[in-house]
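Budget justification aside, the reviewers requested a transparent look at the raw inputs and outputs of the sequence design task funded under Objective 1. We therefore reproduce one unedited record. The lines immediately below are the structure tokens for a 67-residue chain.
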């Protein structure tokens, strides 16, 4: 596994939809702002660092892995 998994805008949208979370709840779970999640979902920014790692875990194991 790479240190910073590549997470696309489509991945972020799918992960959030699979978790059935609003943008604000999803942002709080990841400890980022709602604007950041919006930019990720629109492809204006790419998640990196710990956010990318958490999104990778959510993608593979679901939200149950973090709560």
């Amino acid at each position: 596994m790479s240190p910073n998994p590549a997470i696309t805008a489509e991945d972020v949208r799918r992960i959030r939809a699979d978790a059935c979370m609003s943008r604000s709840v999803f942002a709080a779970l990841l400890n980022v702002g709602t604007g950041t999640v919006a930019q990720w979902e629109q492809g204006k920014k790419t998640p990196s660092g710990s956010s990318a790692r958490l999104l990778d875990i959510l993608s593979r194991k679901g939200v149950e892995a973090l709560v």
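The two ends are 23 Å apart (CA to CA). The mean pLDDT is 92. Computational costs for records of this kind are itemized in the attached budget.
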